[in-house]
Design brief:
Strand content: 15-25%
Number of domains: 3
CATH superfamily of the largest domain: Glycogen Phosphorylase B
Shape: globular
Structural class: alpha/beta
CATH topology of the largest domain: Rossmann fold
Largest sheet: 10 strands, mixed
Radius of gyration: 27 Å
Helix content: 40-55%
Bound molecules: ligand GL4
CATH architecture of the largest domain: 3-Layer(aba) Sandwich
Number of strands: 25
CATH class of the largest domain: Alpha Beta
C-alpha cells in the first residue's frame, strides 16, 4: 500500500465529509471532523481486518475469544492513529484543513463500557493481543449508555447518563448479516424418536443479537482484531395482533423487553445485584458469542469435534461463566455430540481469570432465576453440578469440601465453582492474589486439581499509558534507551538505569514532570474550574471509591496535616496538593459519604488562608480514562493504599510508576511485585502485610483501643464528628471506623495502619526535599516498569494458557 501522507489524509477527510455529512471542509463542525477522522481510519482498519481474517482461516490458527461484560476503551482516535503510525500525519492534515488537532481529539467521548480496572484491563489486552499478532476477538455488549457521568453538586455525587454513541458510534460497524438469535424463557419438551433422545426448547422469547464491530489496530503490524459488541433488538417492532386489538402498550412490550438488555452498563464494581436483567445481559452476550464462534468454526472445518483445538474462550471474571453450559447445550442439542464428547471440548476451551476475592463480588445466582429465564441452561447446569459433586465426593470424602466446591447449593448457582469445574485454567492477576486463591478462596479445588491454577500478573498498554500520553518522557526514553525499541520491547526501559547518576538526565526528567504538571493545571482550570499550584507535590489517589481502597485513610491523614497547621500556622512545609478522583456505585451509600467528606474537607482547606501555598485538596469530577491520561503524566505521588490482601492487582499503580510517580503503598496486589523490582529504597511502603491482616482479624481486632491510645488519630477521627465549615457531620463514618454500625468496626483496618501511613507520607515529603534523590528514584521506577507492560502479560496467557503463537 502506498504510504499515507498528510496530503492523502486531507483528501480522504474531505471526501468523507462530503459523502457522509454533505459538508465541505469549510462548513464542517469539529464534531463532524472528528467523525470523519474516525471513519477514515476505520476504513483502513477494515481492509486490514479482512486480510487478517483470511490469513487466520488459511493458516487454521487457534483463535482467542476474550469475553468480558466490560471494555473500558476510552478514546480511540489518537490511539488508532498512533498504532497505524499516522499520528503526525493526521495532526498535520487537521491543521492544514484549518482545525486544531487537540480540539478534535478532545471532542471524542470516552467509550466507557466498563467500571474500572477489570474493564480497562480488557481494553489494554486487546491492544497487546493485536500487536502480538494473536488472532483474537473481544466480545461484550453494545451498551447504549456507558458508565454514568459524575457531577459533584454541593459536594455530593450526582449521576448523569452517558450517551457516548452520539459521536462514539463512528467506530462501530454494524454487521446485521451476522445476527444471532438468543432465546429466553419458555419450556423444555423431551421425547424419544428415531432411537434418539430429543430436547426441544419451545415457547421462548427471541432477542436478536446484532454485532457492532469495533476494529482494533496493532502497533507496527497489519494484524487487526475486532471488538464485537452485541446490540439487542426485538425481532418484531410490535405485536401486530395485540396492536390491532387496540392494546398498544402491550403490543410494544416484547420490543421494549428485548432492547432494554443493551440499554445500560451496570455501574457496580465488585457488587452483585442478582437482578434478572443482569442475568439476561450475561446470557445474551454469551449465547450470541458461542453461536457465532461455532458458526464460523463449522464454516471452516465442517465439524465441531476439533472446536477446542481452534478456539479458546477467556472469561474475564465469572460474568461470562454461562459460556460453559451454553457451549455444552450447543454441542449436545444442536451438534448432536454426546455429553462426554461435549464436556471434553468445553473443558479444553474455557479459561477463567478471577479478579477479586471480595465475597460481595462473588457471583451466585438464585436458581429460580435461571430456571425461569434459561430452562435448558438450567438442565445442563444441574447435570454439570451433579457430576462435579460426585467427582469431589470421590476425591475427598468430606462433606464440608463437597459443600464448599458445589456448583448448585442452597438454592444458588455459584459461578466461580462453575468456572473452576468447566475450565482448563484458573488464574489470579498478581502473585499475591493467585497465592490467596490457592491457599484460601479456592483451596479445595486447588487440592484436587492443582495443575489448573496459574498466575498472570496484570499489565497495561504502555504505548497508550506512556508513549502516547507523555510525549516528553517518550522523547527522553528514545534518546536514552535505544530509540523506539521499548515500544515493542518494554524491558528496554531498564537502560534508563545507566543514567541514575547523570545530573543532566535527572534534570531533564524533572523538567518533563514540571511541564506535565503545568499542562495538567491548565487542563484542570479549563475543565474543572480549579487553580492548582504547580509548586506543590501532586499527590494523587484516583480509582473507584471503595472502602477497601481506603480513600478515607488518605483523608484522615490530610485532616492530621491540617490540624498540625492549625496548631502552628507559621509552620513552614513543603506545599502539597492532594488530588482525588473516584466514582461511587450509585447504590453504595458509604462510598458516596466518603466523596462528600473529601469535598467538605477540600472546601475547608481551600478556603482557610493558613493553608494558602501549603495545603490544597481537590476532588476531580468525573474521573475517567481521558482524565487519567492527562493526570498521570503530571503525578508525583501515587497512592496505592488498599488493605493488604484485598486489591487483586491494581493497574493504576503500574501507570503511575511508568510515568515516574513514586508510590506510597501497602504490600498488596501488584505493589508486591513493584517492591520486588524496586526494593524498600525506591518506594514508600507501609502497613500490615496480608498475613498480618488475617492474623489480626483472627485474634480479634479492636479499633477502639487504637482510638483511645493514639491522640493524633483520635483528633483526626473526632474531626469527622465535628465536620467542617459546611456544617455536615460525618458521625456515620466515625461510627463505622470506631464503634461499628451494623457491622464490625473498621473492617479495612484504617486505624491499624494510620500511624504507619503518616510516617510513610512523612518520609515521602522528606525525600521530595532532595530533588536529585527524588529524580533518581523516579527514573528508576520508570526503568523497572517494563515488566508491567500488557505485552508481557498477554504473552504469558498465550504461552501458558491459550497455547497460541505470537510475535
Ligand atoms: C479488579 C481488581 O479490583 C483490580 O485490583 C484488578 O487490577 C482488576 C483487573 O484485574 O480487576 N477486579 C474487579 S471486580 N474490578 C477490578 O478492577
Amino acid at each position: 500500500m502506498a504510504t499515507v501522507t498528510s496530503k492523502t489524509l486531507e483528501g480522504a477527510l474531505g471526501a468523507k465529509l462530503r459523502l457522509n455529512f454533505g459538508s465541505t471542509v469549510e462548513e464542517a463542525t469539529d464534531a463532524q471532523m472528528m467523525k470523519a477522522c474516525a471513519l477514515v481510519l476505520r476504513d483502513m482498519m477494515a481492509i486490514r481486518e479482512v486480510e487478517t481474517k483470511q490469513m487466520v482461516r488459511r493458516e487454521e490458527k487457534r483463535q482467542v475469544h476474550y469475553m468480558s461484560l466490560e471494555f473500558l476503551m476510552g478514546r480511540s482516535l489518537m490511539k488508532n492513529a498512533y498504532n497505524l503510525g499516522l499520528l503526525p500525519q493526521l495532526r498535520q492534515a487537521l491543521e492544514n484543513l484549518g482545525f486544531r488537532a487537540a480540539d478534535i481529539f478532545e471532542l471524542e467521548p470516552d467509550a466507557a463500557l466498563g467500571n474500572g480496572g477489570l474493564g480497562r484491563l480488557a481494553a489494554c489486552y486487546l491492544d497487546s493481543m493485536t500487536t502480538l499478532e494473536i488472532p483474537a476477538t473481544g466480545y461484550s455488549i453494545c451498551y447504549e449508555l456507558g458508565l454514568f457521568r459524575q457531577k459533584i453538586i454541593e459536594g455530593q455525587q450526582v449521576e448523569l447518563p452517558d450517551n457516548w454513541k452520539d459521536l462514539g458510534d463512528a467506530w462501530l460497524m454494524p454487521k446485521p448479516q451476522e445476527t444471532e438469535e438468543v432465546h429466553f424463557g419458555g419450556n423444555i419438551r423431551e421425547f424419544w424418536a428415531d432411537g434418539y433422545h430429543h430436547v426441544v426448547h419451545e415457547n421462548y422469547q427471541t432477542v436478536l443479537a446484532i454485532p457492532c464491530d469495533m476494529e482494533i489496530a496493532g502497533y507496527e503490524t497489519r494484524h487487526t482484531n475486532t471488538l464485537r459488541l452485541w446490540d439487542a433488538k426485538s425481532p418484531s417492532p410490535v405485536d401486530m395482533s395485540l396492536f390491532s386489538q387496540g392494546e398498544y402498550l402491550k403490543a410494544t412490550e416484547a420490543h421494549a423487553m428485548a432492547e432494554v438488555i443493551a440499554k445500560v452498563l451496570y455501574p457496580e464494581d465488585k457488587h452483585i445485584e442478582g437482578k434478572s436483567l443482569r442475568l439476561k445481559q450475561q446470557y445474551f452476550f454469551v449465547s450470541a458469542t458461542v453461536q457465532s464462534v461455532a458458526r464460523r468454526h463449522l464454516e471452516t472445518y465442517g465439524t465441531l469435534k476439533n472446536f477446542h483445538e481452534k478456539n479458546v474462550f477467556q472469561v474475564n471474571d465469572t460474568h461470562p461463566a454461562l459460556v460453559i453450559p451454553e457451549l455444552m447445550r450447543l454441542l449436545i442439542d444442536d451438534a448432536g455430540l454426546s455429553w462426554d464428547e461435549a464436556w471434553y471440548i468445553t473443558t479444553h476451551s474455557v479459561a477463567y481469570t478471577n479478579h477479586t476475592v471480595l465475597s460481595e463480588a462473588l457471583e451466585r445466582w438464585p436458581q429460580d432465576l435461571i430456571q425461569r429465564n434459561l430452562p435448558r441452561i438450567w438442565q445442563v447446569l444441574v447435570e454439570i453440578s451433579n457430576r462435579w459433586q460426585k467427582k469431589v465426593e470421590d476425591f475427598y470424602h468430606d462433606s464440608t469440601k463437597t459443600e464448599d466446591m458445589a456448583i448448585i447449593w442452597g438454592g444458588q448457582v455459584r459461578m466461580a465453582n462453575l468456572c473452576i469445574a468447566g475450565g482448563m485454567a484458573v488464574n489470579g492477576v498478581s502473585g499475591l492474589h493467585s497465592g490467596i486463591l490457592k491457599k484460601d478462596l479456592f483451596r479445595n479445588a486447588y487440592g484436587m486439581e492443582p495443575w489448573k491454577f496459574q498466575n498472570v500478573t496484570n499489565g497495561i498498554d504502555h504505548r497508550r499509558w506512556l508513549s502516547e500520553i507523555n510525549p516528553g518522557l517518550d522523547r527522553l526514553i528514545r534518546d536514552l534507551a535505544g530509540g523506539d525499541e521499548y515500544l515493542l520491547h518494554p524491558t528496554a526501559l531498564s537502560r534508563l538505569d545507566d543514567y541514575a547518576d547523570d545530573a543532566e538526565v535527572l534534570q531533564r526528567l524533572s523538567e518533563i514532570k514540571r511541564k506535565n504538571k503545568e499542562a495538567f493545571a491548565d487542563y484542570a482550570r479549563r475543565t474543572q474550574d480549579v487553580v492548582l499550584n504547580p509548586d506543590a507535590i501532586f499527590d494523587v489517589q484516583v480509582k473507584r471509591l471503595h472502602e477497601y481502597k481506603r480513600q478515607l485513610l488518605n483523608a484522615l491523614h490530610i485532616i492530621t496535616l491540617y490540624q498540625q497547621l492549625q496548631d502552628d500556622p507559621g509552620r513552614s512545609m513543603q506545599p502539597q496538593t492532594f488530588l482525588f478522583g473516584a466514582k461511587a456505585a450509585p447504590g453504595y451509600a458509604v462510598a458516596k459519604r466518603i466523596i462528600h467528606l473529601i469535598n467538605s474537607l477540600a472546601d475547608q482547606i481551600n478556603h482557610d488562608p493558613i493553608c494558602k501555598d501549603k495545603l490544597q485538596v481537590v476532588f476531580l469530577e468525573n474521573y475517567r480514562v481521558s482524565l487519567a491520561e492527562q493526570l498521570i503524566p503530571a503525578s508525583e505521588v501515587s497512592q496505592q493504599i488498599s488493605t493488604a490482601g484485598k486489591e487483586a492487582s491494581g493497574t493504576g499503580n503500574m501507570k503511575f510508576m511508568m510515568n515516574g510517580a513514586l508510590t506510597v503503598g501497602t504490600l498488596d496486589g501488584a505493589n508486591v511485585e513493584m517492591h520486588d523490582l524496586l526494593g524498600d529504597e525506591n518506594m514508600f511502603l507501609f502497613g500490615l502485610h496480608a498475613d498480618e491482616v488475617a492474623e489480626l482479624k483472627a485474634r480479634g481486632y479492636l479499633p477502639q483501643r487504637l482510638y483511645a491510645r493514639d491522640p493524633i488519630l483520635r483528633r483526626a477521627l473526632d474531626q469527622l464528628k465535628t465536620g467542617f465549615r459546611d456544617g455536615v457531620s460525618y458521625e456515620d463514618l466515625f461510627a463505622r471506623l470506631v464503634t461499628g454500625s451494623n457491622c464490625a468496626a473498621d473492617e479495612y483496618l484504617l486505624l491499624a495502619d494510620f500511624a504507619a501511613y503518616c510516617a510513610a507520607e512523612k518520609r515521602m515529603v522528606e525525600t521530595y526535599a532532595n530533588p536529585a534523590e527524588w529524580n533518581r528514584m523516579s527514573l528508576h521506577n520508570i526503568a523497572r516498569s517494563g515488566m508491567f507492560a500488557a505485552d508481557r502479560a498477554v504473552a504469558e496467557y498465550a504461552d501458558h494458557i491459550w497455547h497460541v503463537g505470537h510475535r
